[in-house]
Amino acid sequence: MDGAWWPSSRDAAAELPGLIAAVDRLLERVTLRVGLHGDAWQHIPRRIPAHGRQVRVGWFRYTDPRVITLSFASGEPVVLLIIPSDTAGAAAEATLKLIAQDIAGLSIDAILNLAHLPASRAPRATADGPAGWENEGGSVSGQETTSTARPSALT
């Protein structure tokens, strides 16, 4: 686990541009691809525009829905724990602070337990769920939401 992210919603189209910009800036690398669990997000685009390029978005059903992975041209990918958007502010901030510490070797469940968040809690898409799937993308339906800035932690 390389860090944590507390998005404002499960709307991938609204949330991913800010995450990509923050990771690019903080790590001084260019994000090329984002991988996430398809059932944990709404409005998942195939690509996200970012500083004159298109970042590919891949969604999968066999990954942990509590993490998101960002890949770059060089170096290891970055894996972030997703703090569910409906998490209370104090609990989310405590999780971000915990992640900023040395958590090497801890499982996701152990991290969530230390942060006093339910280990089994994973974000889920609404009942509208995935409307159709393709190899590298698809579409989902659901309510549109707006994104507001929230703290994130990268270690």
UniProtKB/TrEMBL annotation:
Residues 141-155 have a biased composition (Polar residues). Residues 123-155 are annotated as: Disordered. Pfam families: DUF5994. This is Uncharacterized protein. It comes from Nonomuraea solani.
